[in-house]
Q: What sequence folds into this?
């Protein structure tokens, strides 16, 4: 067993209210601290953020490099000419000038603050992976590097229905192949994601560890302030909290809920479907539906995580909604929060998915996004259970153990 007492984390963002990726980053960082490791965090959040008992260093943008000059020259050119040349430049160079400058800024800060740490973990968000790119400039540190891969990369390696091919995709492929072959260790939030990425970058199958997303532990609020109207503890409330992207259409869920109400008229008085989070692609449709369906409550904007977390602990059912696909290798960032909220989970997930794998074949409340009939049956069963016992719980000690600090430490100490 190799003890990793001193860990350096390079994170793209640690602003928990900005993105789900940042929440996952902070949750893992805090979990490492709770494992009794000494943790130093270099972050590129672009603002000063402090995490309790952790040395957090805000990486400064390098404003004296050639890439910085080129990125600003590009902005001035585009502003004057009204011509966007970003896509053409990425086709040539693989990434934007800003990306390269950010990478160099991160590399410079790693060089400055590296102090013989036992392990270096790179954490990103979205489709950026700037910290991973920065580490490629430091081959002397490859043998201490754990590259955390939170999502498929590049974008064209996402499973259907995602179908976006980025400019410079060939260069991005080569970049990530180099990451896979350079980092001594890699880690993935799910077993299926490791297997999925291993199709394209086989080295990940050799180096890959499974480190599931961690719970971001914060206090449950007693008062939601301006968001109090979102919570009614006397009502059967189904909550979906999170970004409703184009590939995660909520209409089948809404149609199932409407059919449930039609079959159970009493539920019109004591139930509601609550959707929270950005939904730009579906916004007009959802607002139209809500005018016809008073039980459909919408808040189609981001709200502070402490509010979402409190809602998840107090609603009747938490919903995990995934796309209509043959496979979903993702572990949603909210999965650990739903498990620890200890409320029944309605999982709308493909036949082959990490969510389904973890919940297990014996879990009752799971169906696919296009199976409206089954969805109606599950909502009805959950409603009847709630009618009998308002404190119905998920009660999955096995998942709590899998997502625990103890399990995380056991993985780190195997390195």
A:
């Amino acid at each position: 067993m190799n003890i990793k007492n001193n860990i350096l984390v390079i994170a793209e963002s640690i602003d928990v209210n900005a993105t789900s990726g940042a929440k996952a980053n902070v949750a893992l960082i805090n979990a490492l601290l709770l494992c009794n490791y000494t943790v130093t965090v270099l972050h590129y959040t672009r603002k000063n953020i402090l995490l309790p008992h952790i040395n957090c260093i805000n990486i400064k943008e390098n404003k004296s490099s050639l890439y910085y000059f080129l990125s600003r020259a590009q902005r001035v050119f585009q502003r004057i000419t009204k011509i966007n040349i970003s896509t053409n430049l990425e086709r040539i160079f693989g990434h934007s000038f800003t990306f390269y400058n950010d990478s160099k800024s991160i590399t410079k800060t790693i060089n400055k603050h590296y102090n013989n740490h036992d392990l270096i973990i790179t954490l990103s968000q979205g489709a950026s992976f700037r910290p991973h790119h920065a580490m490629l400039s430091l081959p002397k540190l490859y043998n201490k590097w754990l590259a955390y891969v939170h999502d498929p990369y590049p974008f064209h390696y996402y499973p259907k229905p995602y179908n976006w091919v980025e400019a410079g995709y060939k260069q991005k492929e080569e970049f990530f192949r180099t990451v896979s072959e350079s980092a001594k260790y890699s880690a993935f939030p799910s077993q299926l994601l490791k297997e999925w990425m291993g199709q394209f970058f086989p080295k990940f199958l050799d180096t890959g560890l499974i480190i599931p997303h961690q719970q971001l532990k914060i206090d449950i609020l007693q008062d939601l302030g301006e968001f109090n109207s979102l919570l009614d503890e006397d009502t059967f409330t189904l909550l979906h909290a999170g970004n409703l992207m184009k590939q995660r259409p909520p209409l089948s869920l809404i149609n199932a809920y409407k059919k449930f109400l039609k079959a159970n008229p009493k539920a019109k008085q004591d139930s509601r479907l609550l959707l929270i989070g950005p939904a730009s692609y579906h916004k007009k449709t959802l607002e139209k539906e809500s005018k016809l369906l008073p039980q459909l409550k919408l808040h189609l904007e981001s709200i502070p995580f402490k509010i979402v977390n409190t809602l998840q602990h107090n609603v009747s059912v938490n919903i995990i909604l995934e796309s209509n696909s043959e496979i979903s290798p993702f572990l949603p960032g909210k999965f650990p929060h739903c498990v620890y909220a200890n409320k029944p989970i309605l999982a709308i997930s493909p036949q082959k998915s990490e969510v389904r794998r973890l919940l297990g074949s014996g879990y009752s409340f799971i169906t696919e996004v296009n199976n409206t009939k089954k969805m109606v049956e599950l909502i009805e069963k959950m409603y009847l259970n709630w009618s009998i016992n308002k404190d119905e719980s998920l009660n999955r000690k096995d998942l709590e153990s899998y997502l625990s600090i103890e399990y995380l430490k056991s993985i780190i100490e195997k390195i």
Q: What stands out?
A: DSSP finds 17 helices and 15 strands in the chain. Residues 97-113 form the longest helix (17 residues).
